[in-house]
Give the backbone structure.
Amino acid sequence: MQTAPKTSPSPFSPLSLKMNNTVLFDDFSTDPLASGRISALSGSWTWSPGILSVSPGGSSSPSRENIAYLNLSSYGFQAPLPSKIYVVTKVYQNDFSGSYADIVFLSSDSASSSLYTAGAYYQNKNNMQAELYKYMNNGWSQLDSGNNIGATSPVILEAYLEKGQTYANLSASVLSTGESSTAFYNDNNPLSISYVGIGSYNSMNTSFAFIYLSKSMDPLYVYIMGFPSSYTIRVLDSDGRIYNVNYDSTIGMFEVYLFQDPSSFSPVLRNALVLVYSGSSLVSSYYGDLWGGCVYSP
């Protein structure tokens, strides 16, 4: 274990959380359906510890999307949604023939709601890609599709929505080991969005391992500010794995990239060790949980 030297070029100052951008994190360790944290609109939803699954059956919707939405108030969050919001989940897909696993943005909590989907489209056993769709007036419109990558399970699915009175900027990203696919769209005829959920389309069984919402900043990263770009920052997890850290001059912060592979990824890096060096001198450190999308500084 490294410790601060007796002398350093600047006073030693430990890191702490300075900007909490986490809206909610549900790892499904307890039943979100029975507790009312999540409500099923359509499809047949079931829970097992750490997993929320959906298959055809139960109630149906005009869109044919199987949807469950978050009751934000049950997480202590009051409407409206932030104007910039990221949503990330882990998807296990059990059929790869024209099926979709989606993050869903809804206008209402009705099964007939207008909605956006930011999803992973499994074309077949070999190919998949990110997709953006819009459903309104009983019809689907494809907004954009990303590049093809190899079909696999699990994957990390991330959606971003920035909404205003006259526009909505959307993106969907699918991350697998060594590959990613991203779709973008700027909607000048935006839907009014009040709810967030998860869903599937044309799938016999889709499972989700968690859901994480962050406002303003991407939860695939942890942000560290307050140090010159010449400093070196090392981040390790409890197993000693090292995480990539880069300085982003556009925001003046270091970014810790949390994604290494879909199976191990979590938007919360538990029991992390952060070491900040000026040359060979340790000037700051942190031990504890790092939350995706949040900002830490001395």
